User: Fold these one by one.
Assistant:
Number 1:
Amino acid sequence: MAATTGAQSPAPGEAPGTLDETQVQAMFDRIAALYDLMNTVMTAGLHHRWRQRAAQLAALAPGDRALDVATGTGDLALELARAVAPGGEVIATDFSPKMLELARAKAARRDLGRVELRFASANALSLPFGDAEFNAAAVGFGARNFADLEAGLGELARVVKPGGRVVVLEITTPRRPPLSVFFELWFDRIVPALGRLAGDAQAYSYLPSSVRRFPGPEALAAAMWRCGLREIRYQLTAGGIIATHVGVRR
């Protein structure tokens, strides 16, 4: 769903549809205008609820400072902004200029109260922030696009204060039928078909391949541990299709 730095170039044995960073950035620029509509269609509108829950797990308070990486059109950033109001600040980053343009326009239409919400272009693997600047950092549906997952997670952990939280919201692949059968049908057949109807078959063929490459919940929790996060836990929702991980910066 949301974008940040791109996937690596294909290697032997990788899922088909892998794109390099430049291609991923161009792809998200192309689909920006349809992004919100396609998210709503693909999730029956539930993606808003999942982002709300991710923001809750960040455990923010009014006046806190939060970071949203791979913000896309800004939905998770808006949830974080509500959590830190009044008096707080949210910085939301992405590497797609078109996504950031739509995010800024969306935020301008919302009454967020006394909170500062800023959008900036940034590479998730080299965030332009100092150590321990934020009370929490989150990424919603963008971690699977990191060229180096642990480098991206490490950056999220680096910029969070000790005791602060890192939240990762992502699609995961269910392993057991009947949901695994439905998931395969939906992501391998229906989603690419929707992409063709929307005029960008490549983008919505990339989505299932990026999900297939991404580590499962236990492996993602282990990667977060290696990046210095502790008290890691995760929740599976939507029958096991959505995983929300949270870890505490030690």
Number 2:
Amino acid sequence: MEINRKLKFNYEPKTWVIYPDKPFALLDKYRYTLLFPPVLKDGILHLSLQDLNRMFSPESRIPEGTEGEVPIDGTPYVPVVRTLEACLHLRCTVSQGRHIFSKEGVSATRFDNLWWDLYGRDKDWGDLYRVFWYEPLRRLLPYRLYVPTDYDGKSEKKLLCILHGGGSTTDEAFVNTGNRLQLYAEKYGYICLSIDAALADSTYGCLQMPEGADIPELDLSCPENPLHLSEESIAYRKMAEDSVLRVIDLVCRDYRIDRKRRFIFGNSMGGMGAFHLPAAHPGIFRAAAPAGAAPDMRCFDYERLKGLPILLIAGTEDYHGFDYMRNAFRLTKEKGLNIRFLPVAGGQHEDCYKEVLQELFDFFEENS
């Protein structure tokens, strides 16, 4: 059995917004800081070939020597509209000076323009959307931040790393909580970092299945790789795992973070990651709060989590199995783990944690 045989990225941009006078572009709502500034030459917008190839890598590449290519300060630039229409078949709409590209074309509304204005400005608080270049995958990967409004760059903040579920995005925890997550982050002084899974079903590098998963192909004699994943599949999952560590390092570099008070939370596939990453990389996180999943007790080495405070959250109506998660709690407790179990009455698999945000942040605060 092989998973991720075909490389499929978790996030696929649909719209690209380029400003003639700004040092960044938007991939949907995620802001990419350009390597080289855009240039208006003879009234035509030009962008560096290197930036365009980053924005569309790895699926597409614009070759050197493209019609209209010109050197500007030693850097190859191309006319954006002509190049993207000819090479990538993207249609361009110009709205209030912005060049907006998509395969279908975009009719910008007043609301769209207001939204692009908000996220096009140098906003440094509240919800922020960013991408970073991850060289092993030759890809810009997205991440979402919430930065408290009292952040001044002088005093350190705690960091809450958030892992989304399978098939979801970095918006998941914010949307599922009705944006109440930000209220708690503001109240208790956390920067929230919501991390993309990089690849579909990457499980953030975990090679095991959830407790209770009905997978007849599981090979329990090979707990380190019970699905017999191919070397290629394992390599891609490990890249996804590494990308999590890279973006955490990036945010810790860009913001004043208390590195002794970094926490991790995830639901479903993210719950698997919230078990796996602290076990694989001890010392990064002060405490972990997985929800909606726990790795198979027969395969996962829970001993590596001894000493780490863990809060396992499960909804009673979770179709993945409240009983499986409660069983994982009981067995890990017997193994000596510092783990608590938080049942959510009536809670569903996708978002039971939204009902217990106070308890979640109380747990982190207790372990600060």
Number 3:
Amino acid sequence: MDGFRALAYIDEHETRLVSHKGNVYKSFVQLACAVHLDCQAVLDGEIVFLDAEGRPQFYELLRRCGSGETVFYVFDLLWLDGEDLRERPLIERKQLLRSVVPARPSVLRYADHIDRDGVEFFRLTCERDLEGIVAKLKHGRYGEGWYKIRNPGYSQREGRRELFERQRSVGT
């Protein structure tokens, strides 16, 4: 899912969506308010704008416009009800994550995984013009052995580097 990576800090009173640089996403307060669970947790995921067909649209997310829906796709569980889970195997964290993320449709979406056929999955990703895939060690700790494999023909990557370099140079 092509979007903004975020950690969701969830407790009984609020949810904060925080970038990996530690900045709270202030422009996604409504999304954060809609993300809640019946537990305290830290989730790793991606803020994504989906078009009417359910496809990620990065530029609409960036501009905060378009007719679609902003959602939070979660793919990992780092902490649950006071317990640090980062040393546990990914497959265990995914099972726990599946048990806490509601199955009913909401802005909080569980990012499923596949256990085999990675080459075929990547081929389909490229065919559908998606950003790419992330391969992870099934029994790895959090962050261990993660490999991002980008779709070289991904259409929404064009001009992105220049866009972010231009934003950085304006702010300096």
Number 4:
Amino acid sequence: MQIGICGKSNTGKTTFFSAATLVDAEISNRIFTTIKPNQGVGYVTAPCPCKGLGIKCEPVNSKCVDGVRHIPLRLIDIAGLVPGAHEGRGLGNRFLSDIMETNALIHVVDISGGTDSEGNPVEPGSNDPLDDVRFLPEEINHWILGILSKNWKQLMTKSTTGGEKLEDLLHNQLSGLGIGLEDIREVLGKANIGDGTNQSVMMKFVDSVRRKAKPMLIAANKADVPGAEKNVHRIQKEMGSAIPCCAEAELALRRAVEAGLIKYSPGSNDFEITGDIKGKQLEGLNFIKDKVLRKFGSTGIQQTLNYAAFNLLDMIVVYPVENETRYSSGKGRVLPDAYLVPRGTTARELAGRIHTEFLDKFVAAIDARKKQKIAADHELQDGDIVKIMLKK
């Protein structure tokens, strides 16, 4: 699973990425600082079963911090987009291609209104962040529509006279963008696109497909800037979901943890000073505590990642084991792995995710908590601990 961090230049997009991954990506206020996408590993968090079971876990593919499991996922910091990107402005086609390789998008917006439409720094409040919120999905929609328009007549001919299904033809055109057949089929079932010549109708179709294939969340960054909070409420009212963020604060806190100066867990509303901190450094940390953590409840970075995985993509966490009594692997490690899987994943599908060869060898599974056998088509629930039974 890969989540894209995207938006205009100078919105704090790369700072968000660096705070989430601690990858030393170049950060500046120059447009197009990021040309090639930066890639790194971030984490989503979920309650680890260890506390409820009263056992000590020994994670392998993830980590457990005070009973909270940190599960890795791939993040990609996509270079800044400008209006007209779908027409090639600002290397737009290349950047849009990077966007389409993701499963979901976090759109980082300068909620303070301190970045103009081209990504240049301006006086906070002089730009309307609502315009920025709208521009990115519009650019993606126009780009997808442009791809379809090039071959639309041929597609309609094949569909009406060649006996091929329109959904299959559309999928062939859009599969390279990471748009699945099921997404296209579902949207077509609800929309009548006619002969495809009505641009307004086609744009609605493309918009619906994009929403299904590339769900997007607004990260309202720079929320600590004076006057920005009112814009957060405006965006939340308009869009339904937007998380106030302060990427600079999160990055500062994580750097302080690395230096042994504080104890802090991502997503927390507080931190504990453990090192010798004085002067401006102490002032900066106190500012973060008062103006970010106490005001918003967190820096918003961890909450954004969690929302993207668990709400946008509707993922759950399951824990495969080999010994259902001790909740351990074959090597004796307790609760070694945590897997992010789509809600509705079956026991057999989990086996295939662990190893493709397990699909043919699958017999059944055991719910380790209940010590009950479950069928191949049993849909797993969030937090399940599962033993996969295979043919010998």
